[in-house]
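User: quick one, sequence for these tokens?
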């Protein structure tokens, strides 16, 4: 039986990644809402989440030098890294939840972080709002966004590879 050009075109048509991306968007929107709530509770609580934990961490770092913790691991760096890690899911799940303009999650996270830090500085006397926290939170959102971009690229690549494996004709043995 002769094959038409239509048949050839339909065989080479890419397998849609849309169902996988749609599922990913829904799951990511739920995860984003969950993380946003957790971050709001942590950052807008009237006092530090664990004031004794902060002094405990300072003590561990101070005494840890004798046990091999490098001198460059300071309380400030640990705090900066923890803020990066706290906002990484915002960038990741926020970018995956959006179908277009995923990059907007980074400036949105920066604005949200600036709002949080402003509230901490002006309305929560036991908290400190700092520009450094805005920078670290925005960096975390940026890293999360980049990770999400890699995930989306992998889903799309997998869909294209699915085409390559299904569009090639089966070998004929005679």
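Assistant:
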């Amino acid at each position: 039986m002769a094959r038409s050009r239509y048949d050839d075109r339909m065989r080479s048509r890419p397998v849609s990644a849309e169902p996988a991306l749609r599922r990913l968007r829904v799951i990511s929107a739920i995860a984003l809402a969950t993380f946003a709530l957790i971050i709001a509770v942590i950052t807008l609580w009237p006092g530090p989440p664990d004031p004794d934990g902060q002094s405990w961490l300072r003590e561990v770092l101070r005494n840890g030098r004798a046990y091999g913790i490098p001198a460059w691991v300071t309380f400030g760096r640990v705090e900066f890294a923890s803020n990066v890690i706290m906002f990484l899911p915002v960038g990741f799940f926020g970018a995956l939840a959006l179908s277009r303009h995923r990059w907007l999650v980074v400036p949105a996270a920066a604005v949200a972080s600036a709002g949080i830090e402003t509230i901490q500085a002006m309305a929560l006397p036991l908290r400190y709002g700092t520009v450094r926290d805005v920078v670290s939170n925005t960096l975390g959102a940026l890293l999360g966004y980049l990770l999400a971009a890699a995930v989306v690229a992998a889903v799309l690549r997998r869909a294209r590879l699915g085409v390559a494996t299904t569009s090639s004709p089966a070998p004929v043995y005679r």
